[in-house]
Amino acid sequence: MTVVTSALRALLLLRLLLAGSGGGGAGVNFRFASYIGDHMVLQKEPVGAVVWGYGKIGGIVMVTLHQAQETIMKKITYVKEQSGTWIVVLDPMKPGGPYNMTAEQIIKKERYSQTIYDVLFGDVWLCSGQSNMEMSVSQIFNASEEEAKAFSYPFIRIFTVGLVKAKEELEDLTSIDLPWSLPSPENLGHGNFTYYSAVCWLFGRYLSDILKYPIGLVSSSWGGTPIEAWSSWRSLQACGISNKAKQFPFLSLYSGPTDHSILWNSMIHPLLNMTLKGVIWYQGENNAYYNNDLYNCTFPAFIEDWRQAFHYGSQGQTQRLFPFGFVQLSTTMSKDEDYAFPRIRWHQTADLGYVPNVKMPNTFMAVAMDLCDRDSPFGSIHPRDKQTVAYRLHLGARAIAYGEMLPFQGPLPEKIELLADKELLKIEYHQKIQVQKEDDKIYEISCCNDHQCKWIPAPMGNSSSQTLSLKVDSCHGTVTALRYAWSTWPCEYKQCPIYNPSSALPAPPFITVIPS
Ligand SMILES: *[C@@H]1O[C@H](CO)[C@@H](O)[C@H](O)[C@H]1NC(C)=O
Ligand SMILES: *[C@@H]1O[C@H](CO)[C@@H](O)[C@H](O)[C@H]1NC(C)=O
Ligand SMILES: *[C@@H]1O[C@H](CO)[C@@H](O)[C@H](O)[C@H]1NC(C)=O
Ligand SMILES: *[C@@H]1O[C@H](CO)[C@@H](O)[C@H](O)[C@H]1NC(C)=O
Ligand SMILES: *[C@@H]1O[C@H](CO)[C@@H](O)[C@H](O)[C@H]1NC(C)=O
Ligand SMILES: *[C@@H]1O[C@H](CO)[C@@H](O)[C@H](O)[C@H]1NC(C)=O
C-alpha cells in the first residue's frame, strides 16, 4: 500500500519535472551513500533499515533486495528536489543473508543502477570515542591470537570512518578508512590507533557468540578528543557551553581535534540516517582537565542528543532510547591533580555511581579502574587488556539491550551505617561480595571537627557475604562522608578489594554522605 502511494507521488513529480529538465548525464551521480556497500550489515527486525543515496532530480528510484533469482522486496521512491538524494526504509527483515541490493534510477526511459553484494541483516552497533576506543587489535594483549580468530567470524562485518574535521554538519562521510569488510588478521591489526578498534571488535565478537546472527560494527573514533568535539551545538547549549572552544590544556602526545562539534559534524552527523541497534563509547580522558565538572551535564546531554538525532535521522527506526554503553575511565600513571580522573568516573554516571539511572536511562557501563597497565608501550593511559573491557561491556549489552537477566555491574553500597560505638562503619552491598584484597587506604572517610573536614583512610575490617565493616576509630570527630577508590590508580591489575564472586565484576567507585 505504501509502495503504491509513493510510486504514484513519484510519477506525478516526475511528470512535472520532465517538462523542464535537460536530462544528460543523469547516471553520473546515481549511487548509494558512502557507507552503503558490499558486505555491509543492515539493522534487522523489528525495525526497518534505512537506505539512501544520490540521484538526478526527477528520477524515480527503485530499491530491490534479492537472493538468487528471487526478489525479496521492492521499494520505490524519488529523488528529492532540494537535496538530490533519495531515501527508503526497508521492511523489517529477519537476521541472516546474504542478499544483493540494487538501486535503479529511471529517468526519461534511461536506467542507471548500482548493486551491492553480500548484504546481511543483523544488529548494527556504532563504536565511538577517543584513543582507547581507537586502539586496534594489534595493540592489545595476545594480539596475534586475537587476530587469528578473525576467520571464525565471517558474519561480523566491520567499518571504520576516516578522520575528518568539519565546521558544518556534513550529510555524508568524506573519508572511509576501512569500507565494510569481513574480519581478517590484516584489517583487525592494521596499525596503531587505526583499525580495527579492539574494544569494538571484541564487543561484537562476544555478542556474536551469544546472538549467533550477523553483527555490523561501525567505528568512528579519534584519539585525544574531548566530548565537546563529538557534541552537537544543541547538547553543548543545554550545558551552557558556547560553540567556541576554550584554550585546551596540554595533555599528552595523543591529541586530536578539540574544537566544539568538529567531529560531530564530520564523523557522526553523516551516519544519522543509518538504523542502529545501539552505541558504545569510550571517552573521558580528554575531559579530565577540560570542563571536568560539566561532564555530569555534557555526557547525559550528549547521550540524549545522539538518541534524538539518530531516531529522527532514521525516520523513527533507531529506537528513541537506544541502548548506550560506555567504559568508565581506566587508569594513568601521569600525575593526576585535583582528583580529575575519579571525578570524571563519577560524572560518567551523572554523579550517581551506577547506571542505568534516572538521568541516563537504558545505559550500561564497564568499570575499568582495575585494568591498569603500567608497562603499556602506548603509555599507561592506554591499557592493553581490552578483552576484559569488552567482556564487561557485552554483559551490560546483554542485560540492557537484549533483556537477559544477568548481573552486569559489580556490588554497590545499599546501606551505610555508623555503628553505635562509632568505631565501625558498616557497608551493606546490594549483592554478594568477594574480598579480593585487603586495603587500608582505598576507603576514606571525611572526618570533621571544628568546621574542618579531612579525608582519612578507613581500613577494611571484617566482612560477611554482603557486608563489610570499616575501622573509623581514628576519626575523633564526626564522620560525614565516605568514598571508595577515589584516586587515579586505585588498585593493581584485577586486585581491587571488592568484586562480585560469580560475575567477577568489580565494585564501582563511589562517594556518598553519611547521615548523622
Ligand atoms: C549476488 O550477485 C552475484 C553476482 O551476480 C551472484 O554471484 C550471487 O549469487 C548473488 N547473491 C545472492 C544472494 O543473490
Ligand atoms: C605500534 O607501536 C608499537 C609499540 O610502540 C611498535 O613496536 C610498532 O612498531 C608500532 N606499529 C606500527 C605499525 O607502527
Ligand atoms: C556536576 O558536578 C559539579 C561538581 O561536583 C556540581 O557542582 C554540579 O552541580 C554538578 N552538576 C550536575 C548537573 O549534576
Ligand atoms: C537524513 O535524516 C535527516 C534528518 O531527518 C534529513 O534531514 C536528511 O534529509 C536525511 N537524508 C536523506 C538522504 O534523506
Ligand atoms: C592472554 O592469553 C593468556 C593465555 O591464554 C591468558 O591467560 C590471558 O588471560 C590472556 N589475556 C587477556 C587480556 O585476555
Ligand atoms: C571481627 O570479627 C571478630 C570475630 O567475630 C571480632 O572479634 C572483631 O572485633 C571484629 N573486628 C572488626 C573490626 O569488626
From TrEMBL:
GO-annotated cellular components: lysosome
Name under which the protein is recorded: Sialic acid acetylesterase
Keyword Hydrolase: yes
PANTHER family the UniProt entry points to: SIALATE O-ACETYLESTERASE
Molecular function (Gene Ontology), one example: sialate O-acetylesterase activity
Listed Pfam families: SASA (PF03629)
Keywords: Hydrolase, Signal
Annotated signal peptide: 1-26
Biological-process GO terms, alphabetical: carbohydrate metabolic process; regulation of immune system process
Keyword Hydrolase assigned: yes
Domain Sialate O-acetylesterase: 123-371
